[in-house]
Amino acid sequence: MTDAPPIIRLRHLRKEFDGTIAVADLTLDVAEGEFICFLGPSGCGKTTTLRMIAGLERPTAGEIWLRERRIDPLPPQQRGVGFVFQNYALFWHMSAYDNLAFGLRVRGVSPAEVDARVREVAESLELTPVLRQRASRLDLSAMQRVALGRTLVVQPQVLLLDEPLNNFRPGLREVMRGELKRMQLSLGRTMVYVTHDQEEAMTMGDRVLVMHEGRVEQVATPREIYRRPATLFVAGFIGRPAMNFIETQYQVEDGRAFLRHDALRWEIETRREAVERQAPSGRVIVGIRPEDIRPAVLAVPEGRRGETLPVQVDLVQPLARRKIVDVKVLDLVLKMVVPGTFRVDAGQTLDVVMDRGALHLFDPQTLRAIG
Amino acid sequence: MTRMVTESTPSPVTVAPPVPARLYVAGALRLAVAAGIALIFFLPVLWMLSISFKPPAEWLEYPPTLWPKEPLAGNYTFLFNPGNPEGAIAVMTGAAEPVVPAFANSLVVAPLATLLSVTIGFLAAYAVSRFHVGGTFMPFFTLTTRMFPPVAFAVPLLLYYSAVIPRLIPGLRLYDTRLGLILMYVAFTVAFALWMTKGFIDAVPRHIEEAAILDGASRWRVLFTVTVPLVRGGLAATTLFIFILTWTEFLFALIFTQRFAITVPVQVSHYAGAIGRFYGPQAALGILASIPVVVTGYLIQRHLVTGFTFGLVRE
Predict the structure, then answer these.
(1) Residues near A271 by Cβ (< 8 Å), separated by ≥ 6?
(2) Do the Cβ atoms of B210 and A56 come within 8 Å?
(3) Which of A277, A332, B50, B209 has the most CB atoms at less than 10 Å from its CB?
(4) pLDDT computed for residue B12 by the predictor
(5) Are A199 and A285 contained in the same domain?
């Protein structure tokens, strides 16, 4: 992030379709050169937001600014943004060259200049050898580069990408992801990237905007999103396996603050003030990531060690380098992750500790994080 | 650009590996089966071809033979000059007019009606597919109009053509004119054209058109530079289908023409006389009438086979 003025500013953006709200009230600044990912389940409004920036949808309310220009009243071609579609949406019947030249020709650029600019972009994307090939005959990597090149050739200030890797098989996706990221770094272009794949967003984005039901849940760096989810939705959406949630009641015993669920309790003296202020009802949802519940025999830093808790192992799912273990305690089923080398079998009891520093607290009314 | 996946240049030549013998056998078997099926479908055509070269005495032979014993071209010359048949075909008296006007009529009516129908149907299909014009029920409604038996329309339409139109628009003649037939055929085939082309348009991802719109291309430009090329296989198939339909249409051609606008299918029915049906000239005309359809099919077969190469990534 730089101190330079933001390149894109969205102000109270709203979009309704026939009475249903697709985007409720979205305000966002995107910095020059930033790679920002819009992440959320399908139907959350992320693609609609992207299409509003591009000019494919007209906002019901709100403003879109590109640098010093308000662009939401402008037709798409005057906005200075490029759009890369799902599956690339190339003109399959045209050559790679004609795909790249299309935008310039529509804009009435002279043939000589069209040729010069197409060749320049083709050179930078290593497309020169395949310029004469039909788009439908290109390999996937070349298709991706043509899709990018087609938008770059008209020199957009911002690139918008709508789930460009959506329908590629796993494996290829990762290759393409790396290639895209490299391209972004070398082009230094601001990119807004829509995806429903958290791994994609978390690995590629400088920042991630998590959306849910038309609302922004959180905008932050991937690390921040993972470590300090701002809402219950983000906490449950980010991370695999998903975070465990436990309903608790705030109590003070002997002058010390606890969150209690049945016979389980967590001391939260350091966050007492925040809980009392933000959850006056005393009801708190405790979230803990599976990777923060560990077998007691494996070390947790002494100061952060919670109480040792005997649990019943219910199910063990071995993955390549780790195991996902379902454990039962009281009426709860919790997921935990242990190293692949750790021996554990269904039916046995296991002493576990929870990393006290890794507890996430949420208000069940507002669904927002506490503290 | 730092590093890039570099398999983008395809290897120029791929050498086919040697084909194992059992694949040859399988191929030969497949070919034999295909040839057998083709023969079954082609048999009527061969029979017609054979009869078109047979003299009247051999037309009704039983069992039928494929090769004429005394082949002659008389059936064909009779089509063009039915005035006074001579020699082996001298018995074919008291019949038809020359075939040329009917052919001329058909060659005007069918292609024009096809062109109009496919153009209108395609544009309508585009509106339905992309802008949902007419709502969800409209496309189906257009098809239901084709569920009426045409004969139910025939007489009211005949009255409309001969009694109403001349009063409403003096000077416009639709009965027994090429224009009248063309309008009729367009009206009756446009629903098919709409339905066939709609399927192909639906298969073109909207995003491809949006990509062009983002560059500032007008709707018409998008339509003609992006959509039409992508559905040309479908347009070709639709064109051929509608052309066959109109080229061979009989009922309306029979009812709505009398002398001047007679088409080939009606002409085929005219070959009868003192000795009964003139199967030879009918067969000869059947052969000639097949030629435009075959030629049309041949001309557009390239487009029929190509078409959907963009099934590479799913939408």
Answers:
(1) A257, A361, A370, A371
(2) yes
(3) B209
(4) 45
(5) no
